[in-house]
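User: Show me sequence and structure for the first protein, then do the same for the second.

Assistant: Starting with the first protein.
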Amino acid sequence: MNKIFLIIQREYLTRVRKRSFIVMTILGPILMAALMILPAYFAQKSDEVHTIAVVDESGIFYKKIPDTDNLKFTYITEDINAAKNKMGKEGLYAILYIPKPAYSVPSHAMLYSDKQPSLNVQSHIRSAMEKEVEHLKLQASGINEDVLTSIKSDITLASIKMGEKGNEEKSFVEVSMVLGMVAGILIYFFIFLFGAQVMRGVIEEKTSRIVEVIISSVKPFQLMMGKIIGVALVGLTQFLLWVFLTIAIMGVFKVSYPDKLSKPKTEQIMPNNRVDQTAVNTYQNKEAHLNDSLGIMEAISSIDFGVMIGCFLFYFLFGYLLYAALFAAVGAAVDNDADTQQFMWPITIPLLFSIVMAQHVVNSPDGPLAFWLSVIPFTSPIIMMIRIPFGVPFFDLILSMVLLVLGFAGTTWLAAKIYRTGILLYGKKVDYKELWKWIKYKG
């Protein structure tokens, strides 16, 4: 046991001192924090107010296109050519030209700008014009617009999960789906990333003949286990550092720039005042966005992060150990990376199959296919992490964990049989028939 510990120490210290480990450990949290910070930061930076001049030859849209927090519309009576000449001088963001319609209402318009207008700007203008044209057509047809507005209905469907003891808990399918998919993909990523490191490390030691010196002091099984566990600890260290550093970066940003991630303020509209319908719609849209934000916060607060993190660490660790033993066996059986392809395919099939079936599992997390894929050791690390946010019966979770530990023990025994023979074998092309012979060797 002391020799295995020494190998673990060697593998761990050698890898954490590498420049690539340090760079990725620092770069990873920065990238993850940037994905959360930059959208909010640039959204604040884009708060510059743009002025758009409207040249409306139809006369229909005068003061009908509402201003927003970032867009102000000014209506001018000059022709389009004169307006174009003033664009650069008066600092206009764009010119909206609505030509005189050939029939009753305009069907098109043109937006002139020095730069490409954003999609939000175009959508806002198009939506405002479409609503006004629809309003005119309804008036011409003698249809009361208030009647159409009154029959529109929004249905809110809340999902309530009932426990065995009669307790009720609000569930959020969308959040569970995203959380499960992200956790499953992370497991898939880590297994491949650190499993491949084990395989390359075995190949390097074998081709450089360093392994011959090491084997003279330790048994092949001790060397394999020390290498697998050492790399596992490296991966676990890097993952935990990513989590803590990401949280630290987010915390520093919130303290330094508290206004960047602040909630939007809602405008109060007094019922006794006469209010333009556009302002009412704007207010209702802001209220809807606020309700969506509150719903997201409620959904996030409903997640049991203790269970998620604990299960993630378990399935990451034992899922990696199971596959790392097979990766180590492949590295011992070949002399270079090119020869690994024929043996890598059977190992990667269960992982790829898990990702392919992830959507089916999300749609039916309690179905028979989801159950079996979440208890079979080769697919359970990914599929069970996808199921956990939806709620997994205690029996399923314990069965999956026990079988995964037993699967790790079985693959380790199998890999050790291949490893002890292949680690000192050079210059011979190995096939599956040869591997079977190594497995059957006794002693």
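Switching to the second protein now.
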Amino acid sequence: MNTQHFLVRRHLWPHKLAHLGRMVLIVGALWVGGSRATSASDHLDTPTVIADPRADIGDIFAWTSPNGRQLNLVMTIVGHTFSDKIRYIFHVDSGSEFGKTTATTSIVCRFSGPNAIDCRVGEADRALGDATKPDGLEGRNHRFRVFAGLRDDPFFNNVKGSRDAFQYAAAALRSGTAMDEAGFPQFDASTTREILDRWRHTDGGPPKNFLEGWIVSSIIIAVDLDVVSKGGKMLAVWGETSSPERRIDRAGRPLIGNALLATLAPPDVSDKLKEQYNEATPATSAQFIPEIQKSLGLYDGYDGNWGNQVLADRDADLADPDTEPSLRYRALATLLADDRLWVNSAATVCTQFFAVELASLLGRSALSDDCGGRTPNYDAANAFRSLLVNGTTVGIDDGLHHDERDHSASVFPFLAPPSVTKEPKP
């Protein structure tokens, strides 16, 4: 995808009637589906993966090693075992510049039994055997190493606080808070203060990690960079689970499906939409841009400041009456629908989620030497929230900034071993 596609600004739209219908849908959906819109990262996102958690991707992580020689990859799976009927796949697209990739390397892992993995990195290498020991299993050609087994889930999230904030916002909309034509809610100052305060608490008290102690099956890989960077040093990573019949789940950045596709529809509609999203690929995801735009308008309003969301186009509101008003959020919606983790593999320092995007699209030169991507220790959920609300990577949070366990970005297999198994309850 070319960078210029992220900056699309104009589309014709029969906007008056469509705008009225959209606003009715938003308020109704916030009432019906609000409790489902603030779930964990990509965990438990559709009925299909809830039925078989072995196909449910929780999160994808991707970052470069400190020595500059490997790309580190993690896929967490909600189920406690792997399935012999599912392929677990990392896709690493590569190119010379952000937004445009010209080559792809797929790392495909299958399981014939509980401790029997078969992982192939394109045509370059293959690992076959038991990958459950902490040092993993090395490929026959020594081009990669893989671990597959139970680890502590590194994602942390105050789900109850997020849900409480969302439901308070929904109540304000039902009570008459107006929205402009791009979906920005005009909350007053007291409402925005209450929304952000509720976001940082759990049941009115200190914030609690809904996923504390949750154990996930994890596929963890360290692969030589030259194997996965055939098109160039800029990498775009996404993962999928698939059966022989179809793609079941996919994930790149955190919170795309659960925070942006479930927000503006009742459960039966959002379930269908997210199933369609999971069956798509980054290259076929433009169809979801309008839905993501609707959610972006809501998030932009959480701090009460109009148009300060990252990549928001204020000039779109100066368009003539025949132009779609929601184009204010089109650029970011297009970027997020693509849903790949971007990694600058020329960099060996990895400190900031969304670093590649900010450096490439907004000229943040201080981040030009940051690999971006996502390590297990990034405060990615709060950085993402802040980008959606105030346009920076800080300032909007759920009160949590690190996991209870210590994970590593440098020592394989990176994720902490499991301690006490806990299944979170809604």
